[in-house]
Amino acid sequence: MAKSKKYYVVWHGNQPGIYDSWTDCLTQVKNFPNAKYKAFPTKLLAEEAYSSAYYESSKSRKTKTSQADWKEEIKPGSIVVDAACSGNPGDLEYQGVDPFSGQKLFHVGPLAEGTNNVGEFLAIVHALALLKKDKKDNTAIYSDSKIAINWIKLKHPNTKLIFSKRNQNLYDLIQRAVKWLNENTYSNPVLKWKTEEWGENPADFGRK
């Protein structure tokens, strides 16, 4: 199935504007401090978003790196997670990173026929299990997926993903994650990464 076309709004980058390819958008935001950008399914929505007050406020905001922003709120030792999926569904991978050192704590994938939210869910459970093993009961985990964070509370991913022989490995990982959540307790805060304030989190794959 062909991917639906997307339009990318760059509010804060090398050259703000609307782009019709991820490659062109990435050129504007890669390595740009506190870059602000987002994908939209139609050109009309992209145009409306580009001309919104958010763009105006971002231009007038004091120059400040995203790293300085999140370091004021996040405690050392925290884990940030992210997932990337080339398609919906598509090849999926996820990872956990120490945001202060940049050290990759775990990486899994690629896994066939997954979705981004499923990857975020698995990454959070992976981080929870790792912290429980290391007896770090109060260490926070950050994800930029509200959906995945809610699934953690439900102890099950409410996904519509269809499973088959191709994504059997992914299905097995999900079942293991659900089993772990139902058999273990934890006190680690699972929190939303504030992307609009802090920029992309340090675990981001850079494939928006």
Question: Mind explaining what this structure looks like?
Answer:
The protein is an alpha/beta fold and 208 residues long. The protein has 8 helices and 8 strands, in the order E-E-H-E-H-H-H-E-E-E-H-E-H-H-E-H. Strands 6-5-4-7-8 form a 5-stranded mixed β-sheet, covered by helices on one side. A 3-stranded antiparallel β-sheet has the order 2-1-3, sandwiched between helices. The longest helix is centred in the middle third of the chain and has 18 residues, at 116-133. It is globular and about 50 Å long. The two termini are 19 Å apart. Mean pLDDT is 85; it is low at 53-68.
How would you sum up this structure in a few lines?
By secondary structure, this protein is of the alpha/beta class. The protein is about 35% helix and about 25% strand.
In the predicted model, the low-confidence regions spanning at least 5 consecutive residues are: 53-68
Q: In percent terms, what proportion of residues is strand?
A: 15-25%
What is the count of helical runs? Answer: 8
Q: How many strand units?
A: 8
| Helix and strand run | EEHEHHHEEEHEHHEH
Distance between the termini: 19 Å
Radius of gyration: 18 Å
Q: Given the C-alpha coordinates, what overall shape results?
A: globular
User: Fraction of residues in helices?
Assistant: 25-40%
Largest sheet, if any? 5 strands, mixed
Mean pLDDT, to the nearest integer, reads 85
What class do helices, strands and sheet pairing give?
Answer: alpha/beta
- The spatial strand order of the largest sheet comes to 6-5-4-7-8
